[in-house]
Structures are given as structure tokens and as C-alpha cells.
């Protein structure tokens, strides 16, 4: 349906994120079509950002990600309150709304900070291209449907002198394959007629080829209204009950699973009839369900898991927290649904909600009584100071929230002294305790299916007509959560996670049905990916300032695998992944040195960073906020984002951050509505 509204903002176009002039004509047409499609571009529903703030507000919310958007939208529902939301980025571009284009933006200056860690000691050591490994022959066995199905294993391996030998099977990474182990391809147990194999050729996957000499991990973080909910794969996963029960047991009263489940349900508007409504809400603004289109391979992979004895779950957000399932996602009408769309846009006509975009907060204004009274921010090269008469809520995210505290003189004295910032209040935990999931990716090539582009006229027409087809989905949607030998014996705390990804759309040159994704390699097979992940890492990193310049890059240390059990746990996940293959490669997973090296070189640093301003009781020296999310020692200042989590939850973080935004508004109302 064509839009009946005019909008001055649609964000960067498809052509600005598609590399090269060859994409310009077709992707310009696609861009024009979707900008005129009302429920995709949503010009009638968008927030109209202000260009100048008022001098004061009741509440100032810093950051428009899932925590900040939820907080500001819910605060604005109390009509007597005047609220300012400050977001450093832009509004959601049209291109991000189409599920199959979930990876379209990737790393870019429009919507992403471009963060990288400091050089890592163990992780992210190797190449930034993907090398597929195969032996001198294919070995295959029949699956349940008696069809040959062959897997390849891929690793981001460090090749010395940045070179490799395409045809010599002994020419693999000297770093990890110095034993010259004899690899052979292996069988992936998918009951279908699709064949998977490899030609043993290394493929460049990243324009930063040929290597990663500084050994830094990429940490893409959103700079956009809606935050990472505009970048992510839309997965809705809350963690598990034990996550929240542990928070409560550590002294955070009111944060048990029994306490937070009603808050999750309040936010959620579940649309399917396939779950126990004891665990789900159906009337909340955050629409959750399943994609209207799922590739047939999803069901095949579930069958494969069942055949090798792995459990299935009917709902990882419900009673069965262990097993494999087709993911629940945050979409509405086959269009991405961010927290900004769910919570802010319904308040777009509220005259007391002001939103400013491209506004970078540089300091929290704190008076001599240690009360937060306002913020300073930069908009269009001009610095503004705005006052808050009631409270300031920091929702700038796991990196930028501790950064703002430090820039404002709140944090460890040694850090502040090093960069020349006078200390206002000692809080040693600011920036510490950083927790993040860590993973490893293995790729599979579908031998009988060519790597054609799913962005074509047929899929576009199908999506426009009834919001179905490949563009209505972010590709494969299988995920699984399992216990390992390192889990709690009672099974209440699964520590392994698996995702299967692929079959997403990419920029296209012609839109022809069946056109190859890579015109220079038209016979290349399609690739899908299995990523095993450690849900409960013990290693901790930190965030710190490089200088007192608020616009200078932070010091970010992931410190992955500093605790050896993290590597052992991820190795268990790799072993389970290899069980899918029923493979001769399984003997390699017993070689700890090989897999440790491969994981260290090909580390997948998940974007689930948390805990740099962790919540804890007053007895916790490194706690930054109390159980009401108030910053210790600073009045009228709270935090509502992933940084407050005592440790990362056992799942994606987006749903949990929305819940945190809901909770902080509950606490604020509990206090301030007494005076209305």
C-alpha cells in the first residue's frame, strides 16, 4: 500500500549500503518501492525529532536503544510528565525493516559506532576471511532419507605470510594444523535431498583481508533509534529462570523470575497459538511470534537434531528451556519491530515527549550535593545544557553508560586521574565486570543448491502482495539450548547455545530470479552456518577511557578465554555440533590443541555485552546500581540498559533490556507518583 503521509526522513537508501555502482539501478528501484510502502517505511507513525531542546524537563533519558526507548515511551504515558529522549544516531532506515535484509547494514558509519576491542591475548587472533577445510576425498553416509549429505567445516584461520595453497591439502594454517592432520569431509544428517560439500577453496569474507594483525575483536554496536533491535536478527529470548533467581539470591530483591515474568508478559504481544500463555503476554506493545515464512531446511535440521538424540523444545521462553526450536521473533506484519516502534511511536503525538536525534551526550551535570541535575550534549556542532527536575536515566548501553559516568567524574579514582578528570564520587565497579557470550562458526555448503540471490523481483512481489516469501524471514531460524558436563547437575542452567543461520537476502544487481549472488562464481553453492556458543562465560573484561575527550574511542577489553573453562565449555558445544555430522572429523574434536587454536583464531564475539554497571547490594563493592537501578552515591540518577545485569543472561539480551526499561519506570512511578 502506498503511503498517504509525507516524511522528511527515511534514512540511508539501499544504494548507500550496497557496495559498488553495479547495484545502483536495481537497488534504487527497490528502495523507491519500499519507501512508498506504508507499513514498511511507516512515515505516518514515525517520531518527529526536535531540533532544539527546551531548557528543562521532568525526566531526561540518554540513549534510544531498547532500554531507553521503552523507558521514555512508558514515562510519556504519564501525561503530566515532560520527557526528553536523546539519541546519538538516526531514525530507523527503511532498508532495516525488511527481515531478510537483517545483515544489510553491517558495519557502517550511518548506524553503528565501529567499535573494536584492544588486542586480545587469546581470542580474535586470526584472519578475517573464512577458509573452508576439506580432505582429498568426500566421505558420506546415508541419512534417514538415504540421500548423501556432506558437511564442510570452516574456520577463520591464521595463515602465516597471509597466504594459502588452494590445491595443496597440506597448506592449511601452520598455526592450527601443524600436525598436518588428514581431514576429510563429513556427513551432515539432514533428511533431505540437498547435498553439502566443499571444493577446499579459501574464500574471502571480509574486505579487511588479508589479516587481523592487531588481534582485535569487532564489536558492532548500534547508533540508531531502537538500538540493536534495528541491527539484530529479531530473536526474542529472555534467558532462563535461574538467571533472575541468581540475581535475587545475590541480594537484588525483586529480581527473581517470579518477579520479572509478569513484566515480560506486560511488554509482550504474542500472536501465535503454540505456547502456554502462563509464560507469555498477548496484549503488550512488543509483538512477538514466528516469521510468516520459514525455509524447509528448518524442519530438516530439527529432524536431524532429534535423530541424534538431542531434545526439542516447544518454547525456550516457557517451561522447556532446553532443546531445539524454530525461534520466536519480534516482528509485526512481517516487518521488523524495534522497541522504538513498539514504545515510542504510539506517543508520537504526545506534546510532552521530545526526541532529539544525532545528539551525543558528553556529560552528566552533577552538583556539589551529588545530585544529577542535567546533561550536556552536542547537536549539530553546538553544545546544549538541559536540566532535569526529577531524574536522569542512562540507557546508553554497556559501553557508553559507563563512559558517561566516567566522563562525569563517577568511577574508579585511578582511571579518572589517568585522564585528568576530577573525581566526584568513587564507584570502583564502573566499567568493570564486562560479560559477553563467545562463539565459533562452522559453515556448510549446499552442494545441489546454487548461491542465488533471494532479493529478486519474484520475492519482492510476493512480499509486497501478502508479506510472505523469502523477504519475510531472516532466513534459517533454528536455535537450541543444551546442558553440558559443566552445567548444573539439576539441569536448571543450560550453558550451551546453537544457532543455524543463512538464506538471507543481499544487494542485487539485476533482480533476476536465480541470478547468482557472486556473478564471478555463478556455480558456487549456497552456504549456511552453525554457531555453537558458551552462554555462561566466566571471563570478564572492562571498559575504560582513553582520554577525557568524550568523542575519542573507548578502551574496550573483552578478555575472552581468560578463564580456561570458557574454552572447555565452547569445545563441548563444538563436539555437539560435530555430532550432527556423524563425521570422521569427530576424531579431531578430541584434539584440544587444534580446536583451542581454531576457536582462538576464529572467535565470534557475540554482541551481547553486559554488566559494566552491575546491579548489586550495598555490600557488593563493585555494584554500581541498587535493586531500584539507582546509581550508588548519586541522587536522581538511574540506569536502564544491559550494563546493570549482574552477568549476561542465557539468551539474547534484547528482551531482557526491554524488561529492564519497564522495571525502571515502575520504580520511578513508585517514587514520584506519590507527589502527584
Number of strands: 29
> What fraction of the residues are assigned to beta strands by DSSP?
15-25%
Per CATH, what is the topology of the largest domain?
Answer: FAD/NAD(P)-binding domain
Report mean pLDDT, rounded to a whole number: 85
Structural class: alpha+beta
CATH superfamily grouping of the largest domain: FAD/NAD(P)-binding domain
Number of domains: 3
Specify the number of helices: 14
Describe the protein in words.
This protein has 676 residues and is an alpha+beta fold. It has 3 domains: 1-46, no CATH class; 47-92 and 225-290 and 327-436 and 608-675, FAD/NAD(P)-binding domain (3-Layer(bba) Sandwich); 115-223 and 438-605, no CATH class. It has 14 helices and 29 strands. Strands 1, 2, 15, 16, 17, 18 and 29 form a 7-stranded mixed beta sheet that branches. Strands 12, 21, 22, 23, 24, 25 and 28 form a 7-stranded antiparallel beta sheet that branches. β16 (359-366) and β17 (372-379) form a beta hairpin. α4 (66-76) runs parallel beside α14 (654-672) and α6 crosses α14 (654-672). Mean pLDDT is 85; it is low at 127-174, 179-210 and 583-589.
Amino acid at each position: 500500500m502506498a503511503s498517504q503521509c509525507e516524511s522528511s526522513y527515511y534514512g540511508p537508501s539501499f544504494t548507500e549500503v550496497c557496495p559498488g555502482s553495479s547495484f545502483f539501478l536495481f537497488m534504487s528501484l527497490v528502495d523507491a518501492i519500499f519507501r512508498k510502502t506504508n507499513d514498511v517505511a511507516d512515515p505516518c507513525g514515525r517520531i518527529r525529532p526536535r531540533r532544539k531542546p527546551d531548557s528543562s524537563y521532568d525526566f531526561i533519558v540518554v540513549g534510544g536503544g531498547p532500554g531507553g526507548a521503552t523507558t521514555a515511551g512508558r514515562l510519556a504515558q504519564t501525561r503530566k510528565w515532560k520527557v526528553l529522549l536523546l539519541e546519538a544516531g538516526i531514525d530507523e532506515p527503511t532498508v532495516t525493516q525488511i527481515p531478510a535484509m537483517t545483515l544489510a547494514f553491517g558495519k557502517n558509519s550511518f548506524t553503528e559506532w565501529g567499535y573494536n576491542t584492544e588486542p586480545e591475548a587469546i581470542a580474535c587472533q586470526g584472519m578475517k576471511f573464512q577458509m573452508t577445510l576439506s580432505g582429498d576425498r568426500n566421505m558420506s553416509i546415508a541419512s534417514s532419507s538415504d540421500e548423501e549429505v556432506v558437511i564442510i567445516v570452516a574456520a577463520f584461520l591464521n595463515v602465516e605470510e597471509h597466504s594459502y595453497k588452494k590445491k595443496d591439502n597440506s597448506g592449511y594454517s601452520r598455526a592450527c594444523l601443524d600436525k598436518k592432520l588428514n581431514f576429510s569431509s563429513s556427513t551432515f544428517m539432514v533428511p533431505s535431498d540437498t547435498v553439502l560439500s566443499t571444493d577446499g577453496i579459501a574464500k574471502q569474507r571480509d574486505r579487511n583481508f588479508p589479516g587481523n594483525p592487531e588481534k582485535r575483536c569487532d564489536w558492532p554496536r548500534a547508533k540508531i533509534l531502537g538500538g540493536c533491535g534495528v541491527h539484530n536478527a529479531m530473536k526474542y529470548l529472555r534467558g532462563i529462570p535461574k538467571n533472575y533467581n541468581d540475581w535475587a539470591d545475590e541480594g537484588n530483591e525483586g529480581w527473581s523470575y517470579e518477579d520479572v515474568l509478569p513484566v515480560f508478559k506486560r511488554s509482550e504481544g504474542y500472536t501465535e497459538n503454540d505456547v502456554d500463555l502462563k509464560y507469555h503476554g498477548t496484549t503488550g506493545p512488543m509483538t512477538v511470534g514466528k516469521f510468516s515464512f520459514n525455509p524447509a531446511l528448518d524442519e530438516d535440521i530439527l529432524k536431524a537434531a532429534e535423530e541424534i538424540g538431542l531434545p526439542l523444545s516447544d518454547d525456550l521462553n516457557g517451561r522447556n528451556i532446553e532443546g531445539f526450536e524454530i525461534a520466536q521473533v519480534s516482528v509485526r506484519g512481517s516487518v521488523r519491530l524495534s522497541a522504538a516502534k513498539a514504545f515510542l511511536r504510539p506517543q508520537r503525538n504526545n506534546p510532552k515527549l521530545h526526541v532529539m536525534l544525532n545528539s551525543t551526550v558528553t556529560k552528566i551535570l552533577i552538583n556539589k550535593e551529588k545530585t544529577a541535575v542535567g546533561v550536556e550534549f552536542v547537536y549539530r556542532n553546538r553544545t546544549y545544557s538541559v536540566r532535569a527536575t526529577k531524574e536522569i536515566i542512562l540507557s546508553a548501553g554497556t559501553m557508553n553508560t559507563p563512559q558517561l559516568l566516567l566522563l562525569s567524574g563517577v568511577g574508579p579514582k585511578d582511571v579518572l586521574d589517568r585522564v585528568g578528570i576530577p573525581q566526584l564520587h568513587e564507584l570502583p565497579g564502573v566499567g568493570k565486570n564486562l560479560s559477553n557470550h563467545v562463539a565459533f562458526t562452522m559453515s556448510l555448503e549446499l552442494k545441489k543448491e546454487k548461491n542465488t540471490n533471494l532479493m529478486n523481483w519474484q520475492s519482492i512481489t510476493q512480499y509486497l502482495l501478502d508479506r510472505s516469501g523469502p523477504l519475510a524471514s531472516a532466513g534459517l531460524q533454528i536455535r537450541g539450548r543444551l546442558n553440558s558436563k559443566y552445567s548444573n547437575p539439576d539441569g536448571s542452567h543450560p550453558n550451551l547455545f546453537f544457532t543455524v543461520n543463512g538464506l538471507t537476502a543481499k544487494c542485487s544487481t539485476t533482480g533476476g530470479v536465480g541470478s547468482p549472488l557472486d556473478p564471478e562464481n555463478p556455480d558456487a553453492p549456497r552456504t549456511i552456518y552453525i554457531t555453537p556458543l558458551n552462554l555462561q562465560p566466566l571471563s570478564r573484561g572492562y571498559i575504560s577511557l582513553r582520554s577525557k575527550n568524550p568523542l575519542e574511542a573507548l578502551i574496550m577489553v573483552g578478555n575472552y578465554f581468560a578463564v580456561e573453562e570458557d574454552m572447555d565449555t565452547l569445545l563441548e558445544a563444538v563436539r555437539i555440533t560435530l555430532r550432527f555430522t556423524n563425521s570422521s572429523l569427530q576424531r579431531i574434536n578430541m584434539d584440544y590443541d587444534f580446536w583451542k587454536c581454531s576457536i582462538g583464531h576464529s572467535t565470534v564475539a557475540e554482541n551481547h555485552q553486559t554488566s559494566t554497571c552491575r546491579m548489586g547490594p550495598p555490600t557488593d563493592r563493585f555494584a554500581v546500581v541498587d535493586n531500584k537501578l539507582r546509581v550508588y552515591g548519586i541522587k536522581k540518577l538511574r540506569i536502564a540498559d544491559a550494563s546493570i545485569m549482574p552477568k549476561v543472561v542465557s539468551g539474547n539480551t534484547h528482551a531482557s533490556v526491554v524488561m529492564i526499561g519497564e522495571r525502571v519506570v515502575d520504580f520511578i512511578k513508585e517514587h514520584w507518583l506519590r507527589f502527584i
